[in-house]
Design goal:
- The chain is α/β, with parallel strands linked by helices.
- It has two domains: 18-175 and 287-376, Zn peptidases (Aminopeptidase, 3-Layer(aba) Sandwich), CATH 3.40.630; 177-284, Alpha-Beta Plaits.
- The chain contains ten helices and 16 strands.
- The strands form four sheets. The chain has a six-stranded mixed sheet.
- The longest helix has 25 residues, at 352-376.
- It starts with 17 loop residues before the first helix and ends with a helix.
- The relative contact order is 0.19.
């Protein structure tokens, strides 16, 4: 049984305001629209239409991003989320507890709709003090990160928010880096009663060596953020009677101290003497931003104003924060409602009351940030 998505409240005994009802409808409809990476067009059109109807100057850019802008001040805030999802059909509904179920509700349509709803609710003084650009990016879940790579060349922001689930009171400062190693071993077939090793033997030995190297990096560190995580993502072998082939894909999550190309060299070294051919994709450097600046202070204050305790986090995954960090070296954090452990799972869901609260937090924080920027900017 589904409930009326506007029947719940942000606090016991309090009905939703019209703005909160509209914000929920924005989210629910955005989640209803399928938008697997590379197929975001319908969702982008819906979002730009909604933003246009709510005071934004909106368009779809060359990368297919849904872009909406409000405000005329000299201080620019980029609010970069992503509107694509991984595959997997989860029937979209709001249950009796006011929880929205559906692919993308957490990762990351919920956070991006939080951005849009918060900017739509900003008071006139904030819009006079700053410029807010919401970017619903394409292909974040794909290796291309097409939307973010395009956006990073079109803006020079003073502060950046990345739309990813952190929990309404959480602030994510960093993400680990990433590298994918693709291994392949091809050998002449031989009788297993004879001398020698099979293609699968050599492939497995390469994996054992890579895993041992990964475990040695940051071995003395108590935190997983400072260590290498190695995972087998694909593994197989076959023979046609003449030739044996074995293959594997190894995903590496990298700490800030280890650049992707240094990790690549280490993998080559680990596999020295074996017959494995190795290629690499997904070179993304880890990133970790400072915790004390105007952006983090504004959000911490706004979270406390809503009765929460701000919590700083770092994540072992990657996001568009990794992509834009090089060209946007400004105060940055990721924010959004939702439990990131539900990302990509069949149980992906978002409590609408948490979404309501995140919108209130972000509206307050952006207002405070604009005020601070205006107070500290040099006089013309």
């Amino acid at each position: 049984m589904t409930s009326d998505p506007t029947a719940d409240s942000t606090a016991p005994g309090l009905a939703l305001t019209p703005a909160q009802q509209e914000a929920r409808e924005l989210l629910i409809e955005t989640v209803r629209i399928p938008s697997v990476s590379g197929e975001e067009g319908v969702a982008a059109r819906f979002l730009t239409d909604w933003m246009t109807a709510h005071g934004f100057t909106a368009h779809i850019d060359e990368a297919g991003n849904a872009v909406g802008e409000r405000g005329s001040g000299p201080y620019t805030v980029a609010l970069l989320g992503h509107i694509d999802t991984v595959p997997g059909n989860i029937p979209v509904h709001v249950d009796e507890s006011g929880v929205l179920h559906g692919r993308g509700s957490v990762d990351a349509k919920g956070p991006f709709c939080t951005f849009v709803a918060a900017v739509a609710a900003l008071p006139p003084e904030a819009l006079a003090q700053a410029r807010f650009v919401c970017i619903g990016a394409t292909e974040e879940e794909a290796p291309s990160s097409r939307g973010a790579r395009h956006a990073m060349h079109t803006l020079t922001p003073d502060a950046v928010l990345i739309g990813e689930p952190s929990g309404w009171a959480g602030l994510t400062l960093g993400y680990k880096g990433r590298l994918v190693a693709k291994l392949r071993v091809t050998k002449d077939n031989f009788h297993t009663a004879g001398e020698g090793t099979s293609a699968a033997d050599d492939l497995t030995e390469a994996w054992f060596r890579i895993r041992a190297w990964a475990e040695s990096v940051g071995a003395g560190s108590p935190g997983i953020f400072d260590r290498v995580q190695a995972t087998l993502q694909d593994l197989g072998a076959l023979s046609d009677g003449l030739t044996q082939t074995a293959w594997a894909s190894v995903g590496l999550r990298l700490p800030p101290e280890l650049a992707p190309y240094a990790a690549q060299d280490a993998v080559y070294e680990a596999a020295t003497g074996l017959t494995a051919d190795i290629s690499f994709t997904g070179h993304e450097s880890a990133v970790r931003h400072p915790k004390d600046n105007a952006l983090t202070r504004a959000l911490r204050t706004a979270i406390r104003a809503q009765g929460g305790t701000p919590t700083f986090k770092v994540k072992t995954g990657t996001s568009d924060m990794n992509v834009v960090a090089e060209l946007w070296p400004v105060p940055t954090l990721a924010y959004g409602p939702g439990d990131s452990s539900l990302d990509h799972t069949p149980e992906e869901r978002l409590d609408l009351a948490e979404y309501d609260r995140a919108v209130l937090v972000l509206t307050d924080a952006l207002t405070r940030l604009a005020r601070t920027a205006a107070a500290t900017s040099p006089l013309p």
